[in-house]
Amino acid sequence: MHSGRQPQKLINSEHNQMKLDELPLYDFEKLETATNSFHFGNMLGKGGFGPVYKGIMEDGQEIAVKRLSKASGQGIEEFMNEVVVISKLQHRNLVRLHGCCVERGEQMLVYEFMPNKSLDALLFG
Fold first, then answer.
1. What pairs with residue 47 in β-bridges?
2. In the chain, how long is the greatest CA-to-CA distance?
3. Considering the domain 10-124 in this protein, what is its CATH number?
4. In the chain, what are the domain boundaries?
5. Does the structure show a pLDDT above 90 at 72?
């Protein structure tokens, strides 16, 4: 599934430091393999923050990988803060965040795969 490593990145802000200790880090190579090297045929969609790819992990688990665009302007601190917020807002009716990848200058979020429709289609028809 993932590397088994836990994020040790400290997020510094003016008022506090947060240590991510519950969200798994995925290896870049495993996500690359799962998505067939981020092949265009596996692209589920593309938004302002980058494309989303369908992937299948070695154990058969289907995932969706949001590969944030370098042009999004989001730095590592903003990315990790977003990961913390998303992971704390898990809800049974929303897609689950499985982990993230911050290797090779990449910032990726790994979600459960929703086979039928995107979340916005379910919410807004």
1. 50
2. 44
3. 3.30.200.20
4. 10-124
5. no
